[in-house]
Give the backbone structure.
Amino acid sequence: MNIDTIETWLTWAIGGLLFVSALLSLIRITLGPSVLDRVVATDVLVSIVVCALGAYAALTDAWTTLPLLISLSLVGFMGSVAVARFVARDRDIPFVAPAPDRLEEGGSPAPRHSLARRGPRRSHAARAHRAAPDHRPGRGGGHP
């Protein structure tokens, strides 16, 4: 076996693996049950394209693909960071069960239009401020 034969086999192996992984990623983009699955699969597909361009550049000594590699890498990174921030922002909001006085007779939450008649809801910060002792002199909340 000479070096050209090994290079040919490696080229076909790399191309085949990248093709199969791109095909699986496209299937996940098409069938993904959630938007997050599709976004992650798109990020993987961008990474596969970067790997394919890197393999092409290594095999052909084409240094002109370097700006394209850097640009695609930055696009993939920025997309991943944007999605991660979006998902983290949605998951930071904790689930708060409705108060018992806000439930209907069957135990389900009352419709929003019926809640509007009961007056404004106080925020957690307003309740905490109201419950906090007053530390100003003469108010009884501080030390003597």
Notes: Residues 80 and 86 are 10 Å apart (CA to CA).
